[in-house]
Amino acid sequence: MTSPAAITFAIPYYSNLGYLREAIDSVLAQTISNWEMIVVDDAGPEPAADLVAALNDPRINYVRNDVNLGLAGNWNECLRHVTTPYVTLLHSDDRLLPRYAEAVLAAADNHPDAAAVFTDAVIIGPDGLPARSLPDLAKRLIRRPATDHDVVGDHGLAGIAAGNYVFCPTLCYRAASLATDPFDGGWKFMLDLEHMATLLLAGSRLRAVRQPLYEYRRHGSNQTSTLTADSQRFVEEIRFAKALEARALNQGWTRTARACRHRILVRAHLAMQMLSDLARGRFAASRQKGSLLLNDLLTRRGSQQTV
């Protein structure tokens, strides 16, 4: 007898059928078979109905939104289709490694107080081969336990605020821990990190599995790259850090507030991108990032003097 599905892989999709097929194939390659999949097409330019139908797998379903809901709206729509105890929002341009489901379900079963489980990730490029970037290398320098561990409280959130080391798409959520529409459409880039912070501030804990079981793809057409190029990402990261600092102070979480106030990784990445733009002759973009960095530093200095 087939076991009931334990986990749903909900794939928010907009475009690029090739990447979507790789994501689906990575689920088909899992070492367990008691899963479900839902592809939620956000009214994109490349419908995936034929691709999903050709798979002829009753575990895999496809829904196309009547109108474009946007990133947060489509993620929330994905969650509305979940009926299993656990769910992973698998990005349509990423891939799972074969033991992902087996490992996160085992960790969730062994730690029933965890609202979600996350894993380490491997960075891949547009061609699916291993890749690297300076921000990813910098994250490896963040001090954190080398073995599986809990992330909880002020100490846990401070580490995430300082190092942003969690690749949010690796998160496998306990469905019962998710509120209705948990992702806030007011964010374009930080919505998953904002939700993770909300869980921790509410007293939830996360379980870290220190195995690379997810392949996170960096390529020029994804949301992260687009928002990085024109500085929107950094504007939002700074706004998020200020908002989280206020929330942390209100709760007496001084470590988290301090990490948000210094936001060293954000500023270092902004400076690096400014110099990269300058070296490549993108002078307007470089000036924009330089102005943003200077303004952020001066604002912080002014705040300290006021205090």
From TrEMBL:
<dbReference type="Pfam" id="PF00535">
    <property type="entry name" value="Glycos_transf_2"/>
</dbReference>
<feature type="domain" description="Glycosyltransferase 2-like">
    <location>
        <begin position="9"/>
        <end position="127"/>
    </location>
</feature>
<protein>
    <submittedName>
        <fullName>Unannotated protein</fullName>
    </submittedName>
</protein>
<dbReference type="InterPro" id="IPR029044">
    <property type="entry name" value="Nucleotide-diphossugar_trans"/>
</dbReference>
<dbReference type="InterPro" id="IPR001173">
    <property type="entry name" value="Glyco_trans_2-like"/>
</dbReference>
<dbReference type="InterPro" id="IPR050834">
    <property type="entry name" value="Glycosyltransf_2"/>
</dbReference>
